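From the shared-data thread, chain only:
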Amino acid sequence: MKVLLLDLDNTLVDRDAALLQWLRGVLPSHARMSSTFEALIACDGGGHGCKTTFFEAVARYTGSTVALVRERFRRELPELVRLKRDADVMLREFPGTTIVVTNGSGAMQRRKLASAGLEGRVSHVLVSEECGLRKPSADIFRLALELAGCDADGALMVGDHPEQDIEGARAAGIDGVLVRTRWFDAPAGVKQVRALTELAW
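Structure, as tokens:
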């Protein structure tokens, strides 16, 4: 295996943990109940839920406006993101090219990369807003292969979303491995891992 294509949120970094930390800092004391946290985390859906619905729910609990909640989320969440321990080990051990392939805004995803200490630790970064391509489009994966100078047989995509990461990569001829979270099950015939240190190359 020459190239690893890696999703960012809940693959290299623990976005769910960052979200919980953010909610603890945002919610007023009377709303800091486990059921409230769980309801909001479920609404967020690992970053794949409806953002407007999530911001509206947080606004109701905080007595703020949706616009202010959205602005605070975008400003504060990236600073709470941390590199997962298993991702740190994997990045130190993998001898080939590593490319982050992530959906989102360039500003927010780049700040997450910086907060997680990933700048300079991966070979390339592809952010959907910056390159005009978005997972699960096969074209963003083909672009990653071009950057690496590698064909599909020499690459592996690793991510937490069955459609955006796994099926998108498959459409470009790239095998995929699903990082198992609470949110999604692996498609039939797709290998899944709970830690990136379980990968073999």
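The beta strands are 3-6, 97-102, 124-127, 155-159, 175-179, 191-193.
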